[in-house]
Specification:
alpha/beta; 2 domains; about 15% strand
Length: about 200
């Protein structure tokens, strides 16, 4: 499996080039994050969010062409389940607009961005699956399907799952097709869903 398939996709919007480069370098060290785009303005940030619909947006609040909250509004329109970490020199006084609060788990002071951002990203990556949107299932997953989804989320291939559960590879493939039909996702999207749920927490 390509490790990128199970990564959280991240967009970074920051207008200070050196700080942006430091952020991207730090994020590259996170094993389950992939920076898919960067931007240095509200306009480009909005475009990046619309094009990529990232799982995580890391956003400078003060941008040359407007407030960073405008980028969050654009992301909310296309991907309301995304999470946003705001960077600001006025973090202590910033009040998040009510309609955006569900998307913004953290506002980080830029003077201590490295440490605080690392902590917030770790919290996002460890967040229980119940806090991410749940697919509506016509039929619940069986215990065996939940078990296989868990292993998909941990990055195991069909062959590795079969060996671990003492099943034939064909049986695992059949279960995987059934899971895909129930959750409405297959291939890389199924892998990403399982990984986002941190090892396939039960969907029932």
């Amino acid at each position: 499996m390509n490790p990128v398939e199970s990564s959280l996709r991240c967009v970074v919007v920051e207008d200070q080039l050196m700080f942006l480069q430091l952020l991207v370098a730090m994020l590259a060290a996170q094993p389950r994050l992939e920076v898919v785009a960067t931007a240095d303005s509200v306009a480009l940030g909005r475009l990046a969010c619309i094009n990529h619909r990232p799982d995580v947006l890391i956003l400078d609040l003060a941008l040359p062409d407007g407030r960073g909250t405008l980028v969050v509004e654009a992301l909310r329109a296309v991907s309301p389940s995304s999470r946003v970490i705001i960077l600001s020199g006025e973090a202590s006084s910033f009040v998040c607009p009510r309609e955006l609060r569900d998307m913004v788990p953290a506002v980080v002071d830029k003077t201590r961005a490295y440490e605080a951002l690392s902590q917030e990203l770790a919290a996002l990556l460890q967040r229980p699956g119940a806090e991410w949107p749940e697919p509506e299932l016509a039929r619940p997953l069986t215990p065996r399907e939940n078990e296989i989804l868990t292993l998909i989320g941990r990055g195991l291939s069909n062959r590795e799952i079969a060996a671990k559960l003492h099943l034939s590879q064909r049986t695992v493939e059949t279960h995987r097709k059934n899971i895909a039909a129930k959750v409405g996702a297959s291939g890389p999207e199924l892998i990403r869903l399982a990984a986002l749920r941190h090892g396939g927490l039960p969907l029932v």
